[in-house]
Every structure is written in structure tokens, then in C-alpha cells.
């Protein structure tokens, strides 16, 4: 079973991804960035960027709250973790920003930490990116 607290010598990919969610939800940009590799790639519907500084900036300005709902993992040299999430942006002035909506993200995890965080508009797109069929059973 994966632990949430990560031993960097032997990272547990799912635990690392859940720890990243916890840091983002607390608005803790330093911890979220520290769980990532130095060249982490960040991408989503509004474009992409890279590096720990990009993660720090995103956490600092996004104001997002992400609740992991289900997780899929694909082991390999780089472990891919797909997370279906309930996303909301409390405190944002846009109409409907505080309302929860489904989202999905793909995380790539190496020994250096999270190497990619890719947000998708829907779960089937995230599963396809990970090489999983749309009906793949979730891990949890």
C-alpha cells in the first residue's frame, strides 16, 4: 500500500500524486513544486509550461481545489497515474467558479518526482493519453 508521505529514495507514484493534491488544496506552492522533478512539464486546455517555478506560480494563482475521485496507474520506467477529480475554484469571481465539475489529469512519475502534470477536459481523453481503454477499471 502506498503512503502519502514520500520517501524520495523509493517514491510511491500514487502516494506522491495524492500528496501533490493535498499541497495544492492547501495552497502550499513550495511543497507542490518540491514533489515535482526540476523539469516538470505542466499542460492543459490553456497551454503549457515547465519547471518547478511554473508549478509554484500556478498553485499561487489558480485557487483550485481538487478532490481525487478515482485513480488508475500504469507502471513502467515512468509510472503514469490518471486521476479523475472533482475541481472547483472557490473564491474566484467568475460565475460558477465555486461549483464542482469533473476533470481528469495525467501525472507522469519518475525517481525524480512528478515529471508531468497534464490536465484533460474529460476522463476518456486522460485514459487514452495513458494508453488505457475508456472502460479500464480504477485502482481505487
Automatic annotation (TrEMBL):
UniProt cross-references to SUPFAM superfamilies, sorted A to Z: NTF2-like
InterPro entries, sorted: NTF2-like_dom_sf, SnoaL-like
Pfam families: SnoaL_2
Residue ranges of every copy of the SnoaL-like domain listed in the record: 17-114
Protein name, UniProt field: SnoaL-like domain-containing protein
Taxon lineage: Bacteria, Bacillati, Actinomycetota, Actinomycetes, Streptosporangiales
